[in-house]
Amino acid sequence: MSFEAIDRFGDRCVSVFHRLTLFAIGGATVWAAGANLLDMVTSKSHASIQDLLLLFIFLEIGAMVGIYFKTNHMPIRFLIYIAITALTRHMIDLVTEVGQHMVEIAVIGGTTLMLSISVYIIRMASHQFPSKSPIEIG
C-alpha cells in the first residue's frame, strides 16, 4: 500500500466524518429550534425578543451548515453573526434584570462593536482578495 493510497483513504475518512457531523449538527439544530418553538407556543402567551434571537441563532447555524455542504468552506462571518446575536441576547437579559450590571453591559457592548468591525474587515478583505470558490456565499 502506497502513501498516496493512504492519503486518499485518509481524505475520504475526513470527508465522511465532516458530512456525518454536519448532518448531526443540522439535525440537532432543527430539533432544538423545533423544541424551542413548541415551548414558546405552548407555555408562553407571546414570544420575547430573547426567543426570537435564539431562533435567529438556529437559522444562522442552519445556513452555515448549508453553505458548507454547497461550498466545502466554513463561512467565518456566520460564526461572528451568531456570537453577536448571543451577546445581544445576554445584554437584553442583563438590562431587564434588576441590579447594577453597567460594567458587564459596557464590556458586552464593546465586544459586540469589535465583532462588528471584524465582520466589516472580513467583508472588505473578501472583496479585495476574492476566493476561488465558484459559489458566492454572501
Question: Can you describe this structure?
Answer:
- The chain has 138 residues and is mainly α.
- It has one domain.
- The protein is 81% helix and 0% strand.
- α1 (3-43) runs antiparallel to α2.
- The longest helix has 41 residues, at 3-43.
List keywords for this structure.
81% helix, 138 residues, mainly alpha
As a percent range, the share of helical residues equals over 70%
DSSP strand content: under 5%
Largest sheet: none
Q: Tell me, what's the shape?
A: extended
Low-pLDDT segments, ≥5 res: none
Radius of gyration from the alpha-carbon trace, in angstroms: 20 Å
Secondary structure tally, helices = 4
Q: Helix/strand-derived class?
A: mainly alpha
H/E order of the elements?
HHHH
For the record, give the distance between the C-alpha atoms at the N and C termini, rounded to a whole number. Answer: 43 Å
Mean pLDDT across all residues, rounded? 87
Quick recap of the structure?
The protein has one domain (3-128). It is built from 4 helices and no strands.
Q: Topology of this protein?
A:
Blueprint: H1 3-43, H2 49-71, H3 76-96, H4 102-128
